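Journal club side-thread
Mid-discussion, someone asked how the predicted structure for our own chain would compare to the paper's figures. Pasting it here so we can look after the session.
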Amino acid sequence: MKMAKCVVWDLDDTLWKGTLSSGDEVVVDPRILETVKTLDERGILQSIASKNNHDDAMRKLEEFGLAEYFLHPQINWNSKSSSLTELQAKLNIGLDTFIFIDDQEFERDEVAFVHPDVETIDAADRFLLTDLPRLSPVHVTEDARRRRLMYREGEQRDRSELAFQGPHDEFLRSLDMVLDISPAGGDDLLRLEELTHRTSQLNSTGIHYSYDELEKLIDDPGHDLWVCELTDRYGSYGKVGMALVEKSGDQWTIALLLMSCRTVSKGVGTVLLQFLVKRAAERGARLFARFRRTDRNRQMLLTYQLANFHVVSRDGVDHLFENDLEIVRDYPDHVRVNVDA
């Protein structure tokens, strides 16, 4: 079961009772208010796909104190499937992590036809959303609680970039980004477990690790478990990456490398890998990396190839790479890298 990352709400007779464009005095059931807030606290993103007048609907959402909970609301007269397409592009998450809820069977069927990976739910079941396993994470991390706020900060960055006059590299330097890399501690484990389940594009194997498995690895002298956090002048992106390195004498093997896809557009998606290459070269180690091809992680394959990793063996979808460490690149100049080793 893949956990859901975003719930997309219809408005009329779904989020609220009544039809706004017909002049109804729409009302929101207190149970819906509680549902929206509970999902938000669990780190589930939420948005709107509604056929309505945008300004009128947004005023109502503001009146109900709900507008802040919905990212990139799609309130227009377009098809609901096109709204989902737009949201997928803006949020940069897989369509198979969306849940769409609507009172109209036609709208649910239209979305299901165009986006078969999206789960659709009848608004009659809206009061049961918080009981759904896909919306009920076992653990809720601090990063998860801040997820909506981090997306809001991302919107501020995007607006600043659009207004910025100059090359993209100069804009990235203006963000004053700092990437902190450190050995993982006990307080990081819930977030690292979450990362292995939520991150699929920049993920070298797609293998999930449980809290208990990660806890054992922290204390194992044969492994290094690294975590990195990214911040800039707008705030923190949270813990955005991790690396698990197996160590046997002078042979190091990257068993898992992953970075949040949110780091790619900021030019820091490869920095953790650069750190591992630098560290191996400084210590005279041979550096290998495991890679397992999935239907989502081609970007990570390219990351390894562009970082001078070469295939030394292959078994089906499983690859073993090695880096001869003849090329050790500096970190990009638009990010300051702090290493607490």
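Post-session note: The first strand starts at residue 6 and ends at 9.
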